[in-house]
Amino acid sequence: CLPCMVHRAYREVCYATQDEALRLKVMVEVAKLLAREFKPDAVPAIVGTFRDRLIKELTGNPDPYKAVKAMSNKTALELRPSVEEYIASARDGLERFRRACLCAAVGNAIEFDILGHRFSLDLLSELLRRAEDDVAIDDVSALYEVARKAEKVLYLTDNAGEVAFDVLLVREIKALGPEVIVAVKEEPCINDALMEDALAVGMDEVADELITTGTDTVGLVLEWASRECLRAYEGADLVVAKGMGNIETLTEYEHDKPIAFLLFTKCETIAGHLGVERGKCVVKLWWPRGI
């Protein structure tokens, strides 16, 4: 993870400021932070959170990826009507759910500045077209049954742009009966979706409740989450967690409920952890111990 953390820090600093002297100063401080915090037992998402906070503080730019997020939302919204048609053409409810899950997982490919992950918004439509061929872990049918039996679902979003496709999956989950609470980040965290991004893509029109995690962490760190988010987590029968950050943080805890991880494997480390190749769609249901 360390080379990627340094690479992403540099790209984030370049987004944050055009001042070359300041860029150098910030990167020196990032190097000191990584030397101090990056240990064999460290959670990369938490170290990444410390890195991002430092960059925002030292550059004075609270949201380095703001323009990138706006463009991601715009592109995803332009593609969404064709994705909606694809989902609507399914032969039954399970197939609709499956297509919505895979498109939401492909949406997680909207990520920038990860080493080895070559992504451009122009590639998104191609990835959506081949979603069915790129599935590496397929727990969709099991997730469908769990969602049908759930009364409350907490849906943890990841990136801007991606959240436009999350709207379609939230709609399908709701059609199965449960109440769905959707959580976005409270404060800027790389290119993760904020409330403004969720509103821009119409998430408020489908979610029963739209909340924030109360913080800016990569993934969900329960110790730092808001009371509102913790209540939603504790009251949920099922958690749907998007992206690599959530799999890094949530697998550090013991849970009393199933968690569905939906993501696109963008780095070798996460892909290797899951036992799949990079560049694949994953819909993985993670059960509590003893079930």
Low-confidence stretches: none
> What is the helical fraction, as a range of percent?
40-55%
Q: What is the H-and-E element order?
A: HHHHHHEHEHEHEHEHEHE
Q: The biggest beta sheet, please?
A: 7 strands, mixed
In DSSP terms (H or I, runs of 4 or more residues), the helix count works out at 12
Straight-line N-to-C gap: 32 Å
Derived from helix and strand composition plus strand pairing, the structural class reads alpha/beta
CATH superfamily of the largest domain: Uncharacterised protein PF01937, DUF89, domain 3
User: What's the arrangement of strands in the largest beta sheet?
Assistant: 1-7-6-5-2-3-4
Proportion of residues in extended strands = 5-15%
Rg of Cα set: 18 Å
In CATH's first tier, which class of the largest domain applies? Alpha Beta
Give me the CATH architecture of the largest domain, please. 3-Layer(aba) Sandwich
Apparent shape: globular
Number of strands: 7
> What do we call the CATH topology of the largest domain?
Rossmann fold
